[in-house]
Amino acid sequence: MPLLCISLLALLLLPLSLSCGNKRSQEDVRNDYMAIVKTRLDNTRESVTSAVQNLTCPRERKHKLPNCTSNVDVVTSLHNLTCIMMYLRLDHTDRLASSVLNSIRCPCLERPTKQPSVRSKRRRATTTRQRRNEHKKSRRQKKLCRAKAILSKMTVCYQILNTMNS
Question: What residue spans carry the region label Disordered (predicted)?
């Protein structure tokens, strides 16, 4: 019985320990945006837009991303969007993600990594390699489209943050 109580208590307290308690105020995040993040956001948006230029991305509503509205904690929404962007692991977005996380002062939780599976070494190398390369290309395109949608949402969040009163 005591073990059950301890387990339940741990499950109740776990989300509190994983949340970021030392997030900065909206005014501080707004000041960092004007000083640092704005140029990184513009550069990243330009870079991703040029990379996605010849692709057809699905509509943004397909990407289930957090929305920023004036009645929601904008800093939390920015944090969630930045963590999603960071998990994409694209060269285009890494610097922006680290700048936003430094501005908010709240790191993303680590995602568990997949363990490599042991496979048979004997295969048809050419067809497997071609399929793998096609899969990598389509996965990269999806990531770029998702990054474009995230950048659009982040821009809206920062616009809302800049129009809010302190």
Answer: 112-143
